[in-house]
UniProtKB/TrEMBL annotation:
It comes from Seohaeicola nanhaiensis. Gene3D superfamilies: P-loop containing nucleotide triphosphate hydrolases. InterPro entries: AAA+_ATPase (IPR003593), ABC_AA/LPS_Transport (IPR051120), ABC_transporter-like_ATP-bd (IPR003439), P-loop_NTPase (IPR027417). One of its GO terms (molecular function) is ATP binding. This is ABC transporter ATP-binding protein. The lineage of its organism: Bacteria, Pseudomonadati, Pseudomonadota, Alphaproteobacteria, Rhodobacterales. It holds the Pfam family ABC_tran. Keywords: ATP-binding, Nucleotide-binding, Transport. Residues 11-251 form the ABC transporter domain.
């Protein structure tokens, strides 16, 4: 339990709102996520999911409200300070070095996090960070293509590699932005296996349009609509909820 707040939460949003001019992208969001918890955030296009991530990561500040990360008020902290405290994020767009191998990409991510900068010094096999990189490559099921150039990977393998990058530097919490987008059914199954197999202490929030993936990899689901939290519950409760079915399943268009 955290001494400062007594809440013991990994992430807490208190009354977070975000306006873009006249548009309220987020309105009075209250969210509580426990350490190690796996949470899915669902909602149709424009519901405010990406804006929620941007406020949590510090890509931009909320217009009002407070954000606590493991008890510490990080509302005004720059993104880099949140990364230093163990927060990671994946993006819908790829941020990989396509001319380097799988292993080198993860190794550089590990070095970047451990030393606060990237270095292109040739790694030594005995390097402890290289060992960590090897383990992360295995965690995301890419050990058989560890020496393959990223440009030669399938799209699904590139998304798996992005998960390994997010795992570098021993994060405490990860925000996954639509990791299943564009994946084949086989690749989706692989993704589900990877996410459910992550170390238990690593909590995450996953934004996902694919209801099947979202419900399988989460313990709790938050539904958003028009910048507000519309419903929260266990995956089975959300799946069976008639309002959710009417709003989301009936009206969702894939983004
Ligand atoms: N930088 C911005 N400037 C102005 N409006 C924005 C900005 N970012 C998001 N919005 C608006 O805020 C609202 C919420 O957008 P957001 O991208 O958070 O929704 P989303 O749930 O992630 O949608 P999608 O599923 O399509 O990614 C939308 O109306 C969007 O147009």
């Amino acid at each position: 339990m955290n001494a400062e707040t007594g809440t013991g939460l990994a992430l807490e949003l208190r009354g977070v709102s975000k306006r873009f001019g006249a548009l309220a992208a987020l309105s009075d969001i209250h969210l509580q996520v426990r350490p190690g918890e796996r949470r899915a955030v669902l909602g149709s296009n424009g519901a405010g999911k990406t804006t929620l991530f941007n406020c949590i990561t510090g890509d931009f500040p909320p217009s009002s409200g407070a954000i606590r990360f493991f008890g510490e008020d990080v509302t005004t902290f720059p993104a880099q300070e949140r990364i230093r405290r163990g927060l990671r994020r994946t993006y819908q767009i790829s941020l990989l070095f396509t001319g380097l191998s799988v292993l080198d990409n993860v190794y550089l991510a590990c070095r970047g996090v451990s030393r606060g900068r990237f270095s292109f010094r040739r790694p030594r096999a005995s390097d402890a960070l290289m060992q960590t990189a090897e383990e992360l490559v295995t965690t995301v099921h890419l050990q058989e293509v560890r020496n393959t150039l990223v440009s030669d990977l399938s799209y699904g393998q590139q998304r798996q590699l992005e998960i390994a990058m997010a795992l570098s530097g021993a994060p405490r919490f990860i925000l996954f932005d639509e990791p299943a987008a564009g994946l084949s059914p086989t690749e989706r199954r692989e993704l589900i296996a990877i996410l459910t197999g992550l170390p238990g202490h690593v909590g995450y929030i996953i934004i996902e349009h694919d209801m099947d993936v979202a419900l399988r990899v989460s313990e709790r689901v938050t539904m958003m609509h028009n910048g507000r939290i519309f419903k929260e519950g266990k995956p089975a409760e959300i799946e069976d909820d008639p309002e959710v079915q009417a709003l989301y399943l009936g009206g969702a268009t894939h983004g």
